[in-house]
Amino acid sequence: MGALAVAIGAFGAHGLEGRVSERMLENYQTGVQYHMFHALGIIAVGLTATVIGGSALLGWAGGLMLFGTIVFSGSLYTMALTGMTWLGAITPIGGVAFITGWILLMIAAFKL
Q: Belongs to which family (predicted)?
């Protein structure tokens, strides 16, 4: 997932400049940043599972981070590439998934 974030970011930096509006390029880069943050978050879920053992909380945390990446970052990527600004309406759903995933990871970690 991290490698994909790097590849998507490189495409945006080298392939989109001058082809999409500055605002859409900013949206795209926001998607890349959150994609990378949550790739690291999923690694944190895996490391936590290694230390404390697997749990439903950790499974949900990782799943929500993945879902959030698909919805949040994916909607921003698609919006920048296609101009379909209505996708901005679903972006917050991914944000809520991110927040919930991090909260579940913290709860699982504090149960140590």
A: Belongs to the UPF0382 family.
The domain segmentation of the chain, as residue ranges, is: 2-110
CB distance 79 to 88 below 8 Å: yes
The residue among 25, 28, 40 whose CA lies nearest residue 98 is 40
* Token pair in block for residue 112: 């140590």
Q: Which two tokens stand for residue 43?
A: 């690694």
Taking the C-alpha atoms of residue 110 and residue 89, their distance in angstroms, rounded to an integer, is: 34
pTM for the full model? Answer: 0.93
> Are 108 and 58 in contact, with CB atoms under 8 Å apart?
yes
Predicted confidence (pLDDT) per residue in 46-76, tens digit:
999 999 998 999 999 999 999 999 999 999 9
Query: Residue 4 carries which side chain, given as an amino acid letter?
Result: L
Q: What is the pLDDT of residue 112?
A: 63
